[in-house]
Amino acid sequence: MRSLGFRIAALHAVLLIASGAALGGFFWWNTAGYLNRQVDQSLRNDVALMTTRFDDGGIDAIIRTVAQRLAEDSDEEEVFLLIGPDGRSIAGNLDSWPVGLPIDAQGIEAPIWHDGITSTGRLHGMELGGGYRLIVGRDVASRLRLRELVADAVLYGSALAVVLATLGGVLVQRVLQRRIDQVAVTAAAIGHGDLSRRVPLTGADDEFDELARTFNGMLDRISGLMHGVRQVSNAIAHDLRTPIARTRARLEEALREAADEAELRAAMERGIAELDGIIAVFQAILRIAEIEAGARRSAFAPFDLSTLLADAAELYEAVAEEKDIRLDAAPTAGLVMVGDRDLVLQAVANLLDNAIKFTPPGGLVQLAAARREETVEIVVADTGPGIPETERPRVTERFYRAEASRGTPGSGLGLTLVEAVAHLHAGTLDFESDPKGGPGLRAVLRLASGEVPRLARSADVQRRRAPSRAAEAGQDRVPVGAAPGGQTSG
Description:
Layout: H1 4-30, H2 32-72, E1 78-83, E2 89-92, E3 106-114, E4 117-129, E5 132-139, H3 141-191, H4 207-257, H5 261-292, E6 301-304, H6 305-322, E7 326-331, E8 336-339, H7 341-358, E9 364-372, E10 375-382, H8 414-424, E11 428-432, E12 441-448, H9 452-456
């Protein structure tokens, strides 16, 4: 009885019964009630008529009026009785004054005897003066029978409404319970570890189907997150086990075979450098988790994106020159947006670092930006080998590195961080081929330029990754140049 289905079914039954009662009452008021009101109005008219006739012509006028009215009554429904001072009947069709009827009775129903039959009358009594009394009324036996029929109809209709309300309530409760049970059974199976279960759809496209789709989407997301957690765990174990083991082996070797203090110091410095790289990987993971959790949104403020891109291009211009690569930066001037300036700078720096890393000598890297309605679009294009379309959906996964990039520095977290920054700013990160058919890749970073919370509610910019636990306060930011990753490494 405490279930939602029962409460909704009970509410449905109560509303249906109340509706039936209201309809029955309205029907009664418009039938039996109307008949009573009609009779009472006729009686009031007769009382007024008799009073006028008595005032004008006395008892003789009353006697003539009663005789005339009875002669004209073809339905034999009118009832009259004039009693003299001695208690004897002078005129009318009633045998006697009804027992218990007061002289001043108004619209009282009482048993009557007239024309040799027993019936029921609706009577109005009045005293004329001089000891004369008069009854005017109507025989309402036929109206009473009609009223009883109306009462029976209302009664049986109300009973039928109760039955239908009960049946309808039971049906509603079963339908609701069945739909709710589907969700409950699926949730219970998920709670026991069966992540493959989904809530079935009925195809009715109603609110329950919408709830089921939302619930199934949540389960798909949870399943993807669990897969991502397993993948990250495997990647950490795979990618970090080797450098840690290698560092340990080198340190043991130096401890055993170092000829002097200088050689031992050099081995220690190499080990520290390798450990710093491992620490940087963990810092990058925590940094991504912090960004995905939205912890940095409180630092949003307006800033000039054009100046930021110019600074990033100047920072990497020397690196590009060392590889004999031309770096062209042509962002639109006056691009102002709201966001975290440091994170956007780091994301752009990671894209430039990847582009320069994979562009061969003599190639070209271009940095451009422009406003597109409520977003700003940052494009980093290069003339490198690009990314096969089949691998593009996976390059932003943590630690993902294609075979072609295994020999390049990095750990596969650079593009993951860029995508996290994009989602924090209600944007996206996409990879496109050269529209002119040339070699290379276009990394397109789209960021909301205005108030992010309003834009972030749109479905097309919802996060594709669940928020991870935010990093502990005081974590050092991964240096812009140290965020590892590659075009084909993620």
